[in-house]
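From the methods appendix. Each design record in this collection lists the tokenized structure first, followed by the designed amino acid sequence. Records were kept in a plain field format so they could be parsed without special tools. The example shown here is representative of the layout used throughout.

RECORD:
FOLD TOKENS (395 positions):
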């Protein structure tokens, strides 16, 4: 079976790629009813769920035991570009054609991810035949979802695709709920038989109760799992995640191709939350801390790559030359107050009373971080015959 692998950027039979990877197609995700990235993790060995930050405010997972920095997004790329830097709302699969889990050191090609690997999202593209799809979901926990996809050609050169999804979710836990909107317009322009321009965009707004879950007493789960130990009056924590990507591809001839892309991502997280901190000696009084978060991130990335094939008398070379230039700005403004004798903030885990303590907050962090990065990649996979090949790469 031939697949276009983001590991090498060329199309190969699976056994010709000298890396360990797992590939989930659209058909597999539909069969397994995958709606979020989290749903797909159970289908792949060596990839595990991690803390999703207060009940699902972003995707987080580990590869082979190596976790990523949740403050800068999980190890993830999109169409071969590092686009998950900064604050990121959970990805919606209504816009995903396939998932490619790249395991091991191949993440070095992107300068992204941990030692264990990373995830590549292959997005859906506009089609040249009109198609529409409507999906409705509901369950007994009052969780509702609707998604709509439509793609069609405008003329012989232009095609578009629109995807919309909305979720309204309650929870088995008291006072916990979430709501989510997703909108993605896309456009493809066939400039010529050799040149194509693609525009992708995604607008995600996610809000919900920040919920750290169940607290333990002497490492034992004794409280009612339905009990929420935060404060309903804190309201929702909100995430806005807006993403734009422009891709240009040009074929010089059947053996040589140029790809260029520019991505821009703008995101914000804002809201109050009351979180558990420490259980007192009586085994029922939980000390808490209250926080206000106002985080913003802005990421810009430009990439150009040249792919080519050269046949010699003794081998076939598949060559990749690429360069990247990018900048990430990340700002964190946080107010916080912990429980103390002068500022009480506790709750009884067996008989909770809400609204009793909503302390005023004081500044805790106010940081601005800027990361600039430049990279040059060189790769050559040499095929000696149908049985033997070797791949060299440097970044």
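DESIGN:
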């Amino acid at each position: 079976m031939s697949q276009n692998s983001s590991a090498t950027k060329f199309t190969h039979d699976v056994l010709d790629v000298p890396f360990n990877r797992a590939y989930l197609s659209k058909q597999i995700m539909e069969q397994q009813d995958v709606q979020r990235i989290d749903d797909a993790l159970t289908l792949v060995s060596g990839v595990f769920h991690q803390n999703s930050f207060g009940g699902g405010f972003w995707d987080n997972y580990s590869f082979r035991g190596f976790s990523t920095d949740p403050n800068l997004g999980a190890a993830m790329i999109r169409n071969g570009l590092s686009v998950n830097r900064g604050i990121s709302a959970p990805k919606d699969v209504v816009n995903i054609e396939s998932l490619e889990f790249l395991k091991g050191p191949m993440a070095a090609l992107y300068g992204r991810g941990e030692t264990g690997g990373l995830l590549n999202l292959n997005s859906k593209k506009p089609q040249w035949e009109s198609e529409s799809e409507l999906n409705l979901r509901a369950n007994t926990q009052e969780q509702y979802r609707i998604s709509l996809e439509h793609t069609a050609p405008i003329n012989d050169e232009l095609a578009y695709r629109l995807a919309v999804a909305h979720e309204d979710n309650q929870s088995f836990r008291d006072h916990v709920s979430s709501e989510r909107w997703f909108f993605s317009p896309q456009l493809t322009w066939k400039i010529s038989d050799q040149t194509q321009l693609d525009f992708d965009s995604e607008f995600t707004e996610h809000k919900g109760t920040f919920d750290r879950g169940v607290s333990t007493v002497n490492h034992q789960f004794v409280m009612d799992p339905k009990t929420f130990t935060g404060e309903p009056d804190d309201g929702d924590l909100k995430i806005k995640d807006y993403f734009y990507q422009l891709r240009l591809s040009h074929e010089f001839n059947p053996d040589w191709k140029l790809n260029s892309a520019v991505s821009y991502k703008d995101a914000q997280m804002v809201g109050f939350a009351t979180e558990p901190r420490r259980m007192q000696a009586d085994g029922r009084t939980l000390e808490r801390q209250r926080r206000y978060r106002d985080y913003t991130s802005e990421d810009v990335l430009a990439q150009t790559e040249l792919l080519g094939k050269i046949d010699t008398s003794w081998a076939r070379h598949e060559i990749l030359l690429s360069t990247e230039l990018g900048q990430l700005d990340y700002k964190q403004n946080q107010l916080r107050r912990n429980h103390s004798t002068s500022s009480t903030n506790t709750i009884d885990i067996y008989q909770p009373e809400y609204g009793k303590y909503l302390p005023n907050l004081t500044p805790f962090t106010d940081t601005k971080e800027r990361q600039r990065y430049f990279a040059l990649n060189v790769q050559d996979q040499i095929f000696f015959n149908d049985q033997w090949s070797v791949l060299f790469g440097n970044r």
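APPENDIX NOTE: The chain has two helices and 21 strands.
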